[in-house]
Write a structure and sequence with these properties.
disordered N terminus; 226 residues; globular; single chain; mainly alpha
Length: 226
């Protein structure tokens, strides 16, 4: 019982850290602009989900086409976003891991094996995420220098994206499906409901803060005439 309660409390803490770091990343993401014929906003997903390396290069090179003060601001914000992501990762994959282990605890043997594996393969997703950020930071660092090829090929970068999103989303979908089954079937412990309440409160608070920091870069962009 103690392990069960401690596990869910650790889950709540991980969710809180996840939401806090997500808020920090959203703040920095509000300053992302680039110049591709016209000045436009971009998101970190535009870099992560790019279908070609040229898309990434065009977005990043468009940053240095902006006015000097804007170039410095955007590059600094992009780097800070990626650095904050390094703190987001253990919270995100840790949350998934804990949830998988808690679901496995209530499963028959085949389910125990399946969800335990789902939990542990988050390490591969985490490593892929780290390498992805290193790849992007390397490209940012080479913006103002003579072009040098990346140590990691774009094809390898795409594989990392597949591993990262594939493993994490598979685990999330399976865990949510299992938890929904437990809820409908009544196969849950009443004491666990307080942890659900804690998570709901965390999400509500996060939603409120998201509105406060909805577009932190708007004033800055207006001042820069963007």
């Amino acid at each position: 019982m103690l392990v069960f309660i401690s596990g869910w409390m650790l889950f709540c803490i991980a969710v809180a850290v996840l939401l806090l770091t997500a808020l920090v990343m959203q703040f920095f993401g509000g300053f992302f602009i680039t110049k591709d014929v016209l000045v436009r906003n971009f998101t970190i997903l535009d870099l992560e989900m790019a279908s070609t390396e040229m898309e990434i290069d065009n977005t990043l090179k468009g940053i240095i086409k902006l006015e000097p003060p804007a170039v410095e601001k955007v590059i600094k914000s992009l780097k800070n976003h990626l650095y904050a992501d390094f703190l987001f990762m253990p919270a995100a994959y840790g949350t998934i891991f804990i949830a998988c282990m808690k679901v496995a605890w209530k499963m028959p043997e085949p389910g125990v094996i399946f969800f335990t594996l789902l939990g542990w393969i988050q390490i591969a997703a985490w490593i892929s995420d780290i390498m992805e950020n290193i790849y992007l930071l390397g490209k940012i660092g080479r913006l103002n220098s003579v072009y040098k090829p990346s140590y990691l090929s774009f094809h390898a970068y795409q594989v990392l994206e597949i591993v990262k999103w594939g493993f994490s989303l598979l685990a999330v979908v399976c865990v949510l499906s299992a938890l929904m089954y437990f809820w409908i079937s009544g196969l849950y412990m009443g004491q666990s409901l307080k942890y659900l309440l804690i998570v709901v409160i965390e999400i509500v608070v996060f939603g409120g803060l998201m509105k406060v920091f909805k577009n932190p870069g708007k004033t800055w962009k207006t001042a820069m005439h963007y």
